[in-house]
Amino acid sequence: MNKHVKKMIAPIIVTILVILYFFLYFGIFIYLIPITILKVVFGVLPAILGIVMIVVCIERIKEIRGGEEDDLGKY
To answer: Residue 47 and residue 62: Cα distance in Å, rounded?
Structure first.
């Protein structure tokens, strides 16, 4: 297995777990709250956070493929 592939596994797994957590956590609020406006807010919020997590994961994968394996190397 390529050394870059091994380093890409952790960000992908963390992204999937965090997105599942967002949807499960906010799903409970959607189920329990009777107010429709709050249901919409709690439905849109995890979708936005999930999209942000996916974008960050894609950027991290590009960094790993480009040879930048240490994020602190930029600073």
So the answer is: 23
Do residues 11 and 57 touch, judged by C-beta distance below 8 A? yes
Q: What pLDDT sits at residue 12?
A: 93
CA distance 58 to 54: 6
Sign of dihedral through CA atoms 42, 45, 50, 53?
negative
Q: Is the pLDDT of residue 68 over 80?
A: no
Cβ burial of 48 (10 Å; 0-12, 13-18, 19+) is exposed
Pick from 9, 15, 7, 13: which is nearest to 70 by CA?
A: 7
Beta-carbon contacts of residue 43 (< 8 Å; ≥ 6 apart): 26, 30
The closest of 8, 20, 23, 22 to 57, measured between CA atoms, is: 8
